[in-house]
């Protein structure tokens, strides 16, 4: 199976470092105090052409699963649904049997 783009250990570490830096309290606090002191910047007009270009660029980054991966995942989901239904059917049967036994004992 081919490796997906951006799944190398160094790429993962770089993304984790960027995320940690963006979420750190010092980064958020510093940005909040700077924003509170500075006057609000005027809003830039929305450029539909640039927006469409950015959407296309982001859409190119999407990695779709192959037909084989989708089929295997679907089969695994079906197997897990069958196993879960068997488990809950059996558990329901045991609990119902136990409740009936207790009611019979209580009725004497």
From TrEMBL:
Q: Briefly, what is this protein's role?
A: Essential subunit of the Sec protein translocation channel SecYEG. Clamps together the 2 halves of SecY. May contact the channel plug during translocation.
Sorted alphabetically, which PANTHER family does this protein's record hold?
PROTEIN TRANSLOCASE SUBUNIT SECE (PTHR33910:SF1)
Q: Which residues cross the membrane?
A: 70-95
Q: What is its main location?
A: membrane
Query: Which Gene3D superfamilies has this protein been placed in?
Result: Preprotein translocase secy subunit
Q: Where is this region: Disordered?
A: 1-26
Q: What is this protein called?
A: Protein translocase subunit SecE
Q: Does the keyword Protein transport apply?
A: yes
- Could you say which protein family the record assigns here? Belongs to the SecE/SEC61-gamma family.
> What is the scientific name of the source organism?
Caulobacter rhizosphaerae
Q: Fill in the subunit field for this protein.
A: Component of the Sec protein translocase complex. Heterotrimer consisting of SecY, SecE and SecG subunits. The heterotrimers can form oligomers, although 1 heterotrimer is thought to be able to translocate proteins. Interacts with the ribosome. Interacts with SecDF, and other proteins may be involved. Interacts with SecA.
The record describes its membrane topology as:
Single-pass membrane protein
Assigned keywords, A-Z: Cell membrane, Membrane, Protein transport, Translocation, Transmembrane, Transmembrane helix, Transport
**Composition-biased stretches (Low complexity):** 11-26
The record's section on Pfam families has: SecE (PF00584)
Q: Give the subcellular location.
A: Cell membrane; Membrane
């Amino acid at each position: 199976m081919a490796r997906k783009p951006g799944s190398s250990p160094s790429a993962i570490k770089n993304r984790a470092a960027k995320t940690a830096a963006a979420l750190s309290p010092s980064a958020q606090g510093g940005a909040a105090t700077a924003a509170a002191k500075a006057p609000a910047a005027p809003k830039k007009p929305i450029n539909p052409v640039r927006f469409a270009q950015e959407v296309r660029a982001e859409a190119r980054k999407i990695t779709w699963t192959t037909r084989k991966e989708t089929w295997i995942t679907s089969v695994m989901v079906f197997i897990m649904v069958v196993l879960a239904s068997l488990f809950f059917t059996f558990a329901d049967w045991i609990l119902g049997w136990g409740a009936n036994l207790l009611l019979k004992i209580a009725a004497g």
